[in-house]
Amino acid sequence: MQIDAVDQRIIALLVADARASYADIGTRVSLSAPAVKRRVDRMRATGVIRGFTAVVDPAAVGWTTEAFVELFCAGRTTPAQIGVAVRRHPEVVGAYTVSGEADALVHLRAADIAHLEDALERLRAESFVTSTRSTIVLSRLVESPGVGPSA
Prior knowledge:
Elements (H helix, E strand, L loop, with lengths): L4 H12 L5 H8 L3 H13 L19 E9 L5 H8 L5 E6 L6 E7 L2 H12 L4 E8 L15
Antiparallel strand pairs: 1-3, 1-4, 2-3
Helix pairs in contact: 2-3
């Protein structure tokens, strides 16, 4: 699907505030509320917009410890196998196949170091994991929920 500059601005505005009304967005992109709704509906129907969600501050719910874990996997472990396994762990907030030495990179969040260690041990216990290398996050410098240019 082709998206134009107006669609891109609508997406950026929804990323910034998914609860913004079509009228508010329309004012910002010079369209009527019904025109914005039609565009959003079209982007949802074609999969450009996959859904709307609440963004929860991990610190507000007590999960203040983060780490990125490189997974090194046995033999011909597929991305699908890794995906199925990491979804079983509630501490996993993201997982990616990567280039380089590691087979995957997993982003974990936990309440504290003991919780993180428990999560790491459970992740390491997956049958295909041969080793891991972890990096603990000290502070977040940039975090953006969106895609593309901001509104």
